[in-house]
Design a protein that fits this description.
mainly alpha, Growth Hormone, Chain: A, 18 helices, 79% helix
């Protein structure tokens, strides 16, 4: 891995940090927003899921801009939206304005959630593509950890939730300034017939002759890059949308968004103690993502998915039971279950779901196809996080978390029967090896 490739990947991954921060920060902020505005469970669900609604808009816009203006300008646009959205959240005077501000921030989340993985996959070589794309998930988990730490540190201040949401403007500014000096991806440049520029960037990225790689890329590029649906596209969309369902509907954002709330339900009564323990969840989430980075190109995608989902099933079972039993020690079982769940998700579905959707679609319209998959990701997210507080209020934790458990079991069956192993295969070779995918 060249120094230039590493620096480019780290700068791009700042978008993942922003994604994670704006995902994680609401978990602590809602403890204090509820007190400021006296909101109902339905309003709480709408507030938390509003960022996903905005993300649907952002992902939809991506289909029109990422293949037209390029990966670089698309990521710059997302940084600007993150910056403005954070300021709007800080200035919100009522719950409706706050929901609108979170929708605005969500647009940036929707843009960056596939523009950055797409950028990372297209600047990397097949030998390290899994590691490079996983930078995005590592950055997301670091952003979540940063949000949890910020929430705890600000928990004792007045108007603390405003500053929690405002601090997202700092990494947004870093991404905006850093990406001004980056180049677009070689594959997009070839798509736009800028072959000489692409060759120079490829050689700089991989420190070797680019002739063979350019030939591979050119062989997959067609002049018409608009999606024309055919039977050959059914399977990649089933895989892409299916993996988005598996990633979200197995409960990850219910855990991430509502961790302090869950801990208060099972026996941690003060806001500060719930927020403090949440920091350890964030640390585990961050550290375990490196397991996926280390093994995704060695063990392969599917073995890690099987291991991760098995751990999630075990932890969700324990967590669901903790809502149905009393006793001082029960809350520590719930903490342990959340830790195992995060460990399992971070080493599997977290990075691998996004990696797979950056691999299974043909290059000539990969941006548009990924955008469609990401739209479904955020639709699933909007539904899951919007319904979670309502389900918890009406049915309790036992039933709610066992619904996630059932989805985990069905997900293993889906992956076993439908998802291909893409380890060690170049993006161009995938189109030849799996004609039903390319």
């Amino acid at each position: 891995m060249t120094k230039y490739l590493l620096i480019s990947a780290i700068i791009a991954a700042t978008g993942g940090f922003l994604n994670g921060y704006d995902t994680g920060v609401i978990s602590g902020a809602i403890l204090f927003i509820e007190k400021s505005f006296q909101i109902t469970p339905a309003q709480l669900g709408l507030l938390v899921s509003s960022i996903s609604f905005g993300a649907v808009i952002g992902a939809f816009l991506n289909g029109f801009i990422v293949d037209r203006i390029g990966r670089k300008k698309t990521i710059l646009l997302s940084a600007l939206f993150f910056f403005v959205g954070s300021i709007l959240c800080f200035l919100s005077k009522n719950i409706n304005m706050l929901i609108f501000s979170r929708v605005f921030t969500g647009i940036a989340v929707g843009v960056v959630s596939f523009a950055v993985p797409l950028y990372l996959s297209e600047i990397s070589a097949k030998e390290n593509r899994g590691k490079i794309v996983s930078f995005f998930q590592v950055a997301i988990t670091l952003g979540i950890l940063g949000a949890y730490f910020t929430n705890y540190c600000l928990s004792g201040f007045n108007n603390n939730w405003r500053y929690m949401l405002l601090f997202g403007a700092v990494p947004a500014l870093i991404l905006l300034l850093g990406f001004l000096f980056q180049k677009d991806t070689p594959r997009w440049l070839i798509l736009k017939n800028r072959k000489e520029e692409a060759a120079k960037i490829l050689e700089k990225l991989h420190n070797k002759s680019s002739k063979d790689e350019i030939k591979e890329i050119e062989a997959t590029v067609q002049n018409n890059n608009r999606i024309k649906f055919s039977k050959n596209l059914i399977k990649p969309f089933v895989i892409g949308i299916g993996m988005m369902f598996v990633q979200i509907c197995t409960g990850i954002n219910a855990i991430i968004y509502f961790t302090p709330t869950i801990f208060k339900h099972v026996g941690f009564h003060s806001d500060s103690s719930a927020l403090f323990i949440t920091i350890f969840i964030g640390i585990i989430n961050f550290l375990m993502t490196f397991v996926a980075v280390a093994f995704v190109d060695k063990l392969g995608r599917k073995p890690l998915l099987y291991i991760g989902l098995s751990g999630m099933i075990m932890s969700l079972t324990v967590l669901s039971l903790s809502f149905n039993h009393n006793g001082e020690f029960i809350k520590y079982f719930a903490v342990g279950a959340c830790c195992i769940y995060i460990i399992s998700f971070s080493m599997s579905l977290g990075p691998i779901a996004l990696l797979l959707i950056s691999e299974v679609f043909p290059l000539r319209f990969r941006g548009q196809a990924m955008s469609i998959a990401i739209i479904f990701n955020f639709i699933f997210n909007f539904i899951t996080t919007g319904l979670f507080p309502i389900f918890m209020d009406k049915f309790g934790g036992l039933i709610t978390f066992n619904i996630f458990n059932l989805i985990c079991i069905l997900s293993i069956i889906f992956i076993f029967t439908t998802v291909p192993e893409t380890k060690g295969i170049s993006l161009e070779e995938l189109e030849k090896k799996y004609p039903t995918i390319g």
